[in-house]
């Protein structure tokens, strides 16, 4: 399992969610965040925070590449400030309501 942690422009969230759901991804967490990067606007020489959303999705290894492609295509890849995707290994998961662990806790 892999967790895709994505930082995106908020206006891209709904279309990305729709495409991921259509491709079998059944859950995600979204958090409103602020951040800046190497190409952020500056004021008085200091980078300014910009509104972003952080989307976290845990996917099976077999669909990591297709999920990344969906996110990349819909997030505006190639555009400065479009965001970032981090791919993180997930060692285990536990569904608290049923005590299921591993893949069955997610999928």
Describe this structure in words.
- With 107 residues, the protein is of the alpha+beta class.
- The chain has a single domain (2-105), classed as 2-Layer Sandwich (Alpha-Beta Plaits), CATH 3.30.70.120.
- It is built from 2 helices and 6 strands.
- The chain has a 4-stranded antiparallel beta sheet with strand order 2-5-1-6, with helices on one face.
- The chain is elongated and about 55 Å long.
- The model has no long low-confidence stretch (mean pLDDT 92).
Shape: elongated
What structural category characterises the helix and strand content? alpha+beta
Uncertain parts: none
How large is the radius of gyration?
Answer: 16 Å
Quote the average pLDDT: 92
* First-residue to last-residue Cα separation: 10 Å
CATH architecture: 2-Layer Sandwich
Keywords:
107 residues; alpha+beta; Alpha-Beta Plaits; four-stranded antiparallel sheet; two-stranded antiparallel ribbon
In brief, what are we looking at here?
With 107 residues, the chain is an alpha+beta fold.
Show the helix and strand layout:
Layout: E1 2-8, H1 13-22, E2 29-35, E3 42-43, E4 46-47, E5 50-59, H2 64-75, E6 83-89
Antiparallel strand pairs: 1-5, 1-6, 2-5, 3-4
Helix pairs in contact: 1-2
